[in-house]
Specification:
- The chain is an alpha+beta fold and about 375 residues long.
- The protein is built from 10 helices and 10 strands.
- The strands form 2 sheets. Strands 1, 2, 3, 4, 5, 6, 7 and 8 form an 8-stranded mixed beta sheet that branches. A two-stranded antiparallel ribbon has the order 9-10.
- The longest helix has about 35 residues.
- It is globular and about 80 Å long.
Length: about 375
């Protein structure tokens, strides 16, 4: 039996992470972005406190928890104004996949470092011509003796410049024209034939976006994670946590924006009363809070289902959570900026940059339209148009 009321342990974790996030805050992250560097100090302190690997197995240096705990970490850091995007990628996607499907040697090699922050892993699935259609992935792996040769391109891959390796989603060469049979490979950052190019983004973030080119990258047999014939099972072992964590990122961002708007609405006085006393200001902020709380409930459900081993149930809930959180985040940020008026567009109040950031929650890692497709087909049983 699962419960959607947080345990005392989860409440304590939330409180502790919130305290850490507030010690850094939005000013810290803004400074890091302006300096063009990575939020190393926050990442390392979060690691030291055990937050980075809270979802990883204890025998490999993790906290022995699950995505439920890791989503709390990301949400609270986001609510403080200092979210760590690579939490979505390194421990949630890569750590989960290696924990579930990796060999004993892969687990010993990677999980302790992912947990203590000494290693970082990026995740490469998106391709320039595949878009949201993972069945069109063209990055291929072919055998060459005992080795693999990997060739293809990936785009919008986060944090590659700081990662020790990238978990690349490819497909075996003989599966290119058949059903999708994704294979997952650990590709070291310095592998011969593996290059990266920065993507010039309007979005300002500590984690840069990259195009990856793999030109006959030679990998040993043990670079393959799991079974080459396992198909979608291994892929969605990483994608469902990704959706839950993206929801946590969005909810945290929305909470931060609403919090800043509430501070302003309580203090800003026009005529005789603070503007927050007026329903035209108060009601939209109350609605934004409700939307974020509802999204959080679905996120908690998805995390609990996933941690309980219900991959099918978690798939539906994780997509719903990501959809709800993305929509709630966009509305929350919009209303926060609107509450501050012109001040909402100034650097002083730090909300304007969230306008672009909030849109990411609608677009990545899967668009809201593709989620609606998923629910239409998988949940409602409606026919496909494609």
């Amino acid at each position: 039996m699962t419960t959607l009321i947080e345990s005392e342990e989860h409440q304590a974790l939330r409180k502790a992470v919130s305290a850490l996030g507030k010690r850094y805050g939005r000013d810290y992250l803004t400074r890091v972005i302006a300096e063009g560097r990575y939020p190393t100090e926050l990442w390392q302190e979060a690691a030291k406190l055990g937050y980075l690997g809270v979802n990883l197995p204890e025998e490999y240096g993790g906290g022995g928890g699950g995505i439920a705990e890791l989503s709390i970490v990301l949400e609270e850091l986001g609510a403080s104004g200092a979210p760590l995007l690579m939490l979505v990628v390194s421990p949630a996607i890569c750590g989960t996949v290696i924990s579930r499907f990796g060999t004993e040697d892969q687990k010993r090699t990677w999980l302790p470092g992912l947990a203590d922050g000494t290693k970082l892993m990026a995740f490469g699935i998106t391709e320039p011509d595949a878009g949201s259609n993972s069945h069109r992935i063209t990055t291929t792996a072919r055998r060459d003796g005992d080795d693999w040769l990997l060739t293809g391109r990936k785009v919008f891959i986060s944090g590659v410049d700081h990662a020790d390796a990238v978990l690349i989603v490819g497909r075996t060469e003989d599966a290119r024209t058949g059903r999708l049979k994704p294979c997952l490979f650990i590709v070291p950052r310095d592998a011969e034939g593996f290059s990266r190019n920065p993507i010039d983004m309007e979005l300002s973030a500590a984690e840069k976006q990259w195009e990856l080119v793999l030109d006959d990258v030679r990998l040993p047999a043990d670079a393959l994670v799991g079974d080459e014939d396992a198909g979608l099972l291994q892929l969605f072992a990483g994608l469902n946590p990704e959706r839950v964590m993206t929801a946590a990122f969005a909810i945290g961002m929305g909470r931060y924006a609403v919090g800043k708007a509430l501070e302003y609405a309580r203090e800003r006085t026009v005529w005789k009363t603070p503007i927050g006393a007026h329903q035209a200001i108060a009601h939209p902020l109350a609605q934004a809070h409700i939307d974020l709380e509802l999204a959080r409930l679905m996120m908690q459900k998805a995390a609990l289902l996933y941690d309980a081993g219900d991959d099918i149930g978690a798939g539906e809930a994780a997509n719903m959570a990501k959809y709800a959180a993305g929509e709630a985040c966009v509305r929350a940020v919009d209303q926060a900026v609107h509450t501050l008026g012109g001040n909402g567009l100034t650097r002083e109040f730090g909300l304007a940059s969230l306008i672009i950031g909030a849109r990411v929650a609608r677009i990545a890692p899967v668009s809201r339209e593709m989620i609606l497709n998923y629910i239409s087909h998988q949940t409602l049983g409606l026919p496909k148009s494609y």
